[in-house]
Amino acid sequence: MLKKISFSIVGVLLFTLPSKAEEQGLFSTLSITPDVAVKAAQAALKSCRDGGYQVAVAVVDRGGNIQTMIRDQLAGPHTPDTAFRKAWTAVSFRTNTGDLATSQKQGTIPQQTSHITNALMVGGGVMFEAHGRVIGAIGVSGAPPGESDANSIDGACAKAGIAAISDVLEGF
C-alpha cells in the first residue's frame, strides 16, 4: 500500500513540476502509438459490425495526424474522410464531436466553427485521454445517426474502441 502511494506521489510530481526542458522552452507530450491505434480501430470496427453496420474508423494522434484507418468492405466511399474529420475535430477541439454538435445546435458555440477546415461536428468522434491529457481521438462513420448526436451509433462504436485500450490509457 505504501509503495502504491509513493508511486502515486511521484507520478503527480512528474506531471505537475516543470522539468528542466520546459524551463528551457521545450516540452514533452503523450500520444497514442500506431499499435494501440490499430487495436482501438479494430475493436470499434467489430462493435459496429456486430450491430450490422459497415463503417470506416480513423484514429489520430494528439496532433490530428492519422495513425490508422480501416474501412469495411461495404462502407460508403465518404466514410474514411468523415471518420478522419470526426477524429480530427475531437482532438482539435478537445471535446467529443457529439457534444460539439449539441452545443452548436443550442447556439452555445459560434457557427463560424463549422467553417474550420476538417471540422465536422456530428457524433462519432471521441477523444482518448490519459492522466487528464488528450493523447488522440477515434472517429467512426457509416452507422445511422441514432437517437441524438451525443448518443450516436458511430459514437458508441468509437467508445468500444476506447474500451479495448483502457488498460493502456489507465496503466501509463
> CATH first level: which class?
Alpha Beta
Strand % is: 15-25%
On the 0 to 100 scale, the average pLDDT is: 87
CA radius of gyration is: 17 Å
Cα end-to-end separation: 19 Å
How many domain modules?
1
**What class, by secondary structure content?**
alpha+beta
Shape: globular
CATH topology: Beta-Lactamase
How is the main sheet built? 4 strands, antiparallel
CATH superfamily annotation: Haem-degrading domain
Name the poorly predicted regions. 1-15
The CATH architecture designation is 2-Layer Sandwich
What is the string of SSEs from the N terminus onward?
A: HHHEEHHEEHH
- Specify the helix fraction band: 40-55%
Strand order of the largest sheet: 2-1-4-3
Keywords:
172 residues, alpha+beta, Beta-Lactamase, four-stranded antiparallel beta sheet, 4 strands, 46% helix, globular
Q: Can you offer a commentary on this structure?
A:
The chain is of the alpha+beta class and 172 residues long. Helices cover 46% and strands 16% of the residues. It has 7 helices and 4 strands; from the N terminus they run H-H-H-E-E-H-H-E-E-H-H. It has helices at 2-16, 20-23, 34-50, 79-93, 97-106, 153-164, 166-171, and strands at 56-61, 66-71, 125-130, 133-141. The longest helix is centred in the first third of the chain and has 17 residues, at 34-50. The chain is globular, with a radius of gyration of 17 Å. The two termini are 19 Å apart.
